[in-house]
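To whoever picks this up:

The parser on our side crashed when reading a file containing two proteins. I've narrowed it down to the boundary between the first structure block and the second sequence. Both blocks are reproduced below exactly, byte for byte. First block:
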Amino acid sequence: MDHRQTRPVQQDLSQKLNLLESTNYQDDASKSNADRRTPSSNKDIRMLDTIALCIATGLRRDIVASAFQKADQGNSQIIYLSKNGEPTLQDINYAQTFLDACKASGNRTMLDMLPTIASRSVAMVQRRVDKLQSLVTKDSRLREFLKRKIERYVCEGVGSEFPVHTSTYEYLKSEGYNAQPNDSPTVKAILRGILKKFDEGLTFNTRKSSHLKLQSLVFAARIFRDSMFLDSLTAGSKSTERISKLCRN
């Protein structure tokens, strides 16, 4: 990355972000671009959100935004990081440390990255964990709605219900499920187990035990988000604001 090229863009983004944040700007006329998003753009947005989450401290008024520019040819990308104010030397050094850790060949799993994230972003990660648990655990109406829908849910089997991903198999194995692809009764047990997983207390810190718990929670949330069950609740007229909010978080 050529800092001479990216710095003017970063300064411009930071100034605009600071202006919007300081004036508490809200555009009531703005329209969500959800209807124009594609699976690829949704993936990009989640990636950018994750980068910003891992770099922000979570302290009050510390806001980080991320964006990237894809090259016309090849797979090279330029990542722009901005915050609402002049970045400190500590901010810059940690951003470089985090990006270096992302590129390191030895860091292949979420657990490999969590020690780096825990060195700075404990408060931010904890806030996101608390928000997710609050949505499912403290909202009794949503919780009862999900429980009823799970009991009435008609599914084809584990192989069709959940995304084919390494995290899926790792989570199911760690939770003691030994389900075959066509095993449909186990699907409801897995969905009920994920709801209970959201109830478990989690205090994120520098200890490996908290990292293992966070990984399990993230895997559970990802499986739940990408399940056919949740997709059936958000399709067409069946969608509710609470379910949509759960998917976004």
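<<boundary where parser fails>>
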Amino acid sequence: MNSYPQSAPESTVATTKQMHYAALQKQLEELGSNVDKLQQNLKETSELAPAFQKLEVLHSSMFMAATAVFQRSHASDPTSTTVSHPTPAIRAAGSDSDQS
């Protein structure tokens, strides 16, 4: 009795290899497409980053100004029942922007 496994016919092996190479080629094409899309997204992100940074600064400035106006209006209103006090986080954010 032969203990070695029987080998598949050569045509079956060749067909199997062709199928594997075709699947590999498809995966490589998909990878190439994904890399191209990633490069496009990175380029667009790098172009938009300064605009996002400017928007962030403008939003922070508006928030700090609105908070200051709100605090002043409550401090000058004698009928107000709320306690007006400065917000430490806002003062810290304002002092950081002054140092830049």
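After patching the parser it read the second block fine. The mean pLDDT is 81. The CA atoms of residues 64 and 83 lie 18 Å apart.
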